[in-house]
Design goal:
The protein is α/β, with parallel strands linked by helices. It is 30% helix and 20% strand. The strands form 8 sheets. The chain has a 6-stranded mixed sheet with strand order 10-16-15-14-11-13, with helices on both faces. A 5-stranded parallel sheet has the order 1-3-4-6-9. The protein starts with 6 loop residues before the first helix and ends with a helix. The chain binds beta-D-glucopyranose. The site of beta-D-glucopyranose (BGC) has 7 residues, from loops.
Length: 745
Amino acid sequence: MSESKTAAQVMSETPIEKKVNLLSGQDFWTTESLPEAHVQGVRMSDGPHGLRHQSGSHDHLAMFASDLATCFPPAVAVGSSWDPELAGHIGAAVGREAVAQGVDIVLGPGVNIKRSPLCGRNFEYYAEDPHLSGALGVAFVRALQAEGPGVSLKHFAANNQETNRQTISSDVDARTLREIYLLAFERVITEARPATVMASYNKINGVFASQNHWLLTQVLREEWGFEGAVVSDWNAVVDRVAALRAGMDLEMPGGDAGRDHEVLAAVRAGELDEAVVDQSAARVAALDRFRASAPGVVDMDAHHDVAREVAAECAVLLRNERTTLPLRRGAHLAVIGRLAIEPRLQGGGSANVNPYRVDVPEQEIRSIAQQYGGSVTFAEGYHLDGDDGGASELVGAAIQAAAASDVAVVFAGLSERREAEGVDRESLDLPAEQVALIRAVSEVAPRTVVVLSNGGIVQLEGWHDDVDAILEAFVLGQGGGRAVAELLFGERNPSGHLAESIPLRLEDHASTLNFPGEMGHVRYGEGVFVGYRQFSTFGVPVRYPFGHGLSYTTFCTRSLEALATGADTVQIQVEVENTGEVAGKHVVQLYVSTAAGAVRRPVRELREFVKVYLEPGQRETLHFSLGRRAFAYWDIDVDQWVVAPGSYTLQVGADAHTVVAEASVELAGDVIAREVDLDSTVGAWFDHPAIGESTFQLLGFGQAAIPEEQLAMVRSMTMRQFLTMSGAPVPTENLDELIAATRRS
Ligand code: BGC
């Protein structure tokens, strides 16, 4: 855009038709240009675990091929790394590839919460926890944008399922929205300033996200200070004029001139203020600051190394009985399973990257085994997608190979077809033929290791106890094959931790009651009790909790100290030590537990974490500084974050269910002056910090001891009801004075 004039000046001199023209794309991936104002359109491409830049035919379902790019580990894996620095490495690398391919805006990352394990797009999201998602999203966006291009933070908001994603209304209460579903967006927007935010397809409490003024203007811009452009998800806009009014600037994709006429007609009829058009056009025009100045050159082999490095930090060692892993060097291995030769790299749909190179697990395992004088026999075991022709032969060969081995390593999991954008999963089960194969192999093999490849968690029941070790590799991108091989042989030490709980049964998940909804609505009935917040609070047993992950070494956590440094801030220090024989990375997970406040709190919530590298015997003292938001809940009464006065316990967890060190502090918190009147409950009067005690005395409760249950009944009545029913002779002017005092305080 012209440097010498402000955006407002430029827009005021631009004819309305041209301004409106800027508000939708030129085609599938690019925005319009306005040469007279020196605005050049920008080019977008899907991401974010690699680019899906289509220089040929276009679509948003990845039906047409895209240019070769590095396929980094998708968000499901990065979430399990618990390492923002790694998220940053991917962001920077994708940023460099974007510059090289002439892409100005990368569509991602997605920081939606994994509400239900059935969501078909969970592979594109980081975690069931908003703090973890937010921290990873911030690091990714900062690093990518530091390379020049911008991002589109998506899918804003409460888009947590694929079933009816274009029409469903996510019905979520305000506290749950703020504490769970908006939080990661808030962090990325306020801390990393993404170029654009993508409004999702769904409705929120009955209003389409792309037409939701509360979401796009009140919260996003007025509260969080977002200054970039809001982009629609592809074809998400229903009412073009309502969307503009709500704060949705750019409709994508473009090419439908009819929609421009709707906007023009609304302006001409006085139904849409031209200033709204000016403002959105200026925001879209300002995107040209993300245009790459000159295409760079990328060292794709170096990026492949990044993909491998990151992948090795993401896999989660779930189980390791009898020290089966790392594999003994020189062992004879049976590597079993189609997924060992046809690895699952990612999920299906718009985020599907065309990898320029792929590490094949079976080859990588063979090459390391041979290096150590061991050997590998491969057996396919099953056909992916249950195409069972000849399966019994495949099973027979696999059993034979397993029986003749020292260790059988079975690659099991889901095909890309089973986890893709646009559809939710029907169950968490592995294909039945794979379960049968695992069980048959484990009966004959001296040791059995299962390596899982899946974009969202799978059920482990029915075969878990039969096997010695389980490495949950999720989908690890193009370098996953090498990473898995190195982890199995102990060349690297596993350090991934679950970013999503693995329940014993799908039905144990509170979301199951309300998923995927009915009659056009999905009710987020579990409220803030999402994932581990439900399981740990209500003592629901799970197979593996959020935060779980084993290592080839052991760590000890001790000496946690917490000090309140103000009414709502706390300093924490804690010591960790590598007590085992090998070096490794440890994730210190810091949770806050409290019952303070007027709302029901989850038993503990993740508020901070850090991943540290420790040599054997090495100790480190870690320091954390928690600000008020770590202790706050969203108060629907005053419509703001509130820190309730009371006791708070800082807990370090080996996972969300296992506390290994804790200390408590008292926080003065916030004094919330809520106004009362005759229709407020007596309880609200009694609890008021300014007038509570006086009210108690005025109503005569100070003089006589009354039984608890009677007091509870009184507290639940409104003051008006109490006065009428009790006939208590309370002078009106005294009550009026107390009411006035609540207005002053
Ligand atoms: C997806 C977005 C994607 C867009 C463009 C939509 O269907 O929901 O995540 O960025 O298509 O491909």
